[in-house]
Write a structure and sequence with these properties.
By secondary structure, this protein is mainly alpha-helical. The chain folds into two domains: about 350 residues, Cytochrome Bc1 Complex, Chain D, domain 2 (Orthogonal Bundle), CATH 1.10.760.10; about 40 residues, no CATH class. The protein is about 35% helix and about 0% strand. Helix 6 packs across helix 9.
Length: about 400
């Protein structure tokens, strides 16, 4: 499955009949899903979490028991990071909770895919407003840039392109840094909390082998456990609540960057981006399309459909990724059954992800360009190019 096809999946999910989620303001346990979800959700969540634990244990055993060259070390580290649920505020949600292998590294919970669309975070009563994208082939996205000839923004990761790749030179690496700090996802109040948890991980030795022993040479404050156990967002008057010296903060930031880069290397590996579909085998001359498949492919490439003008199926210097890395507005109405629309009341931690409630409109790329996100709950760095702000209206509602 290619990146552009996720747009089609989003359309299917958002137009499906969804189950209404009733939020009544009671304080719920942070590790427990709010009642009102489909009856099989809890069992599916438990199954996914058990699979994550199994895969992580196997990956750690594999990394510890065999000799790895430097390239394999980075990939092994990235996999461990992606499957580590300790890298969430309540130690209950890894990146792969929303990005499992068996579903193309996107959401694996059928009952949520068919109803809420979005997934709960480490604080289980908090949901994002968007369906998880796939990690598969995401590393092929270029650094976000404005193509003057096309009159379009091209590249980046996330539905709203906010993981631009401008700073690290890799959109996927910057994408990996955002969910741990998103209040409605993995929920840490400070990137240093992630680094602190990494310093306690059973694969710390591998991180140090890849990036050097200095990765965790940090003097942690005595209250770091308490600070990092409180879900995001951080207080407005204390945006980095893990109080570090300037030198330790710089070292922590570098280690956080290295985490993102390792995850991106794993996502670029054949385990995540294998190019193993029938289409790939046809292009390699190993199999042939059936007559019906060939007719469909011919139509896909024809002047009648123009499909491959946006869903690029390869060309000189191109991988057949079925995307042009731009955003589009499909004209879909809002889906009021997404729980995010009912996160207007402060939760037990005093946080309301969406104060506007049902009045909220997801502006997509346009909202990112103007920094108009509800409560700034979407983690990630701000628009790096002030000139792009003037394009916001043009990109409103595009994903």
């Amino acid at each position: 499955m290619r990146i552009a096809l996720m747009t089609i999946l989003l359309a299917a999910c958002t137009t499906a009949v969804a189950l209404m989620i009733v939020f009544r303001g009671e304080a719920a346990q942070p590790g427990v899903l709010l009642y009102g979800l489909p009856p099989d959700t809890e069992s599916e969540v438990k199954e996914v979490v058990a699979n994550i634990d199994r895969i992580e244990a196997d990956a750690l055993k594999s990394a510890s028991s065999r000799s790895l060259d430097p390239h394999q070390q980075v990939i092994a580290l990235g996999k461990l990071l992606l499957f580590d649920k300790q890298l969430s505020v309540n130690r209950n949600e890894s990146c792969t909770f929303c990005h499992m292998p068996e579903t193309g590294f996107t959401g694996p919970i059928s009952s949520l895919n068919a109803t809420t669309v979005a997934y709960p975070g480490s604080v289980r009563t908090r949901f994002s407003q968007r369906k998880p994208q796939t990690h598969t082939y995401a590393t092929f996205a270029p650094i976000l840039h404005y193509n003057v000839l096309q009159g379009d923004l091209v590249g980046g990761n996330f539905w709203d392109m906010r993981a631009t790749g401008t700073r690290l030179g890799n959109p996927a690496a910057e994408q990996a840094q955002a969910p741990p700090l998103n209040a409605v996802e993995m929920g840490f109040p400070d990137p240093a909390c992630v680094v602190y948890r990494l310093s306690q991980s059973p694969y710390r030795w591998l991180f140090e082998k890849v990036w050097g022993l200095e990765a965790f040479v940090i003097q942690w404050p005595t209250d770091v456990e308490r600070v990092c156990a409180k879900p995001a967002p951080a207080p407005s008057d204390d945006p980095l609540p893990v109080h570090l010296s300037p030198g330790d903060r710089g070292n922590s930031n570098r280690t956080y960057d290295e985490m993102g880069q390792a995850i991106a290397q794993y996502e670029a590996s054949p385990e995540v981006s294998p190019f193993s579909s029938k289409y790939d085998y046809v292009q390699g001359g190993k199999v042939k399309f059936t007559p019906q498949e060939q007719r469909g492919y011919n139509l896909f490439r024809s002047n009648r459909s123009h499909c491959n003008e946006c869903h690029r199926d390869g060309g000189p210097g191109e991988e057949p990724l079925f995307t042009d890395f731009t955003a589009s507005n499909l004209g879909l109405p809002k889906n009021p059954d997404i729980p995010f629309y009912r996160e207007s009341v402060p939760d037990e931690y005093g946080y309301a992800a969406n104060p506007r409630g049902l009045e909220f409109i997801d502006e997509g790329v346009g909202g990112y360009l103007l920094l108009r996100q509800p409560g700034q709950q979407l983690s990630g760095r701000p628009n790096p190019n002030t000139e792009w702000a003037s394009l916001a209206t043009k990109f409103n509602g595009k994903f």
